[in-house]
Amino acid sequence: MKILNVLWFNYVGIVQVETEVGEIKYYINQIDGWNEEDDKKKIAEWGSMFPKDAGDVLFRAAPFLMYEDKTFYGDKKSLDFIWKLIRDKDMNSHRRSAEFK
Fold first, then answer.
1. What is the arrangement of strands in the sheet containing 24-30, beginning at the earlier edge strand?
2. Element (H or E) spanning 22, and its range?
3. C-alpha distances in angstroms, 67 versus 39, 75, 94, 96?
4. Using an 8 Å Cβ cutoff, are 31 and 13 in contact?
5. pLDDT at 56
């Protein structure tokens, strides 16, 4: 598994990984914050699965709302924007799947 990217929310991280077969997956976990490389590995190896649709949207929107060290702007407006994108993406994916049933 190859770690492609990571987002930090204080002491919680979400990693984007590429599996051995080229599939993109996301994992989330709490970290201790002492060593970034160790924290990324811990999340990838022991983290909970993070929904792929939400991860796709979050990692696509994040560069527009982050500081250079990959932490998010703390304002509520930025986080509300991201969660709206995730909700809209999730709602649309459910609508599409319902159309084909």
1. 2-9, 12-18, 24-30, 48-50
2. none
3. 19, 12, 32, 35
4. yes
5. 86
State whether the Cα torsion 45-5-34-65 is positive or negative. negative
Strand partners, 15: 6, 27
Q: How would residue 11 be classed by pLDDT, with cut points 50, 70 and 90?
A: confident
Q: Which two tokens stand for residue 89?
A: 């993406």
Please give the mean pLDDT across all residues of the chain: 75
* 53-76 pLDDT, tens digit each: 888 888 876 665 555 555 554 455
**98: its two tokens:** 């319902």
Contact 3, 21 (CB under 8 A): no
**Would you state the structure tokens that stand for residue 33, as one six-digit string?**
């914050």
- Judge whether 43 and 63 are in contact, CB under 8 Å: no
| pTM attached to this predicted model | 0.66
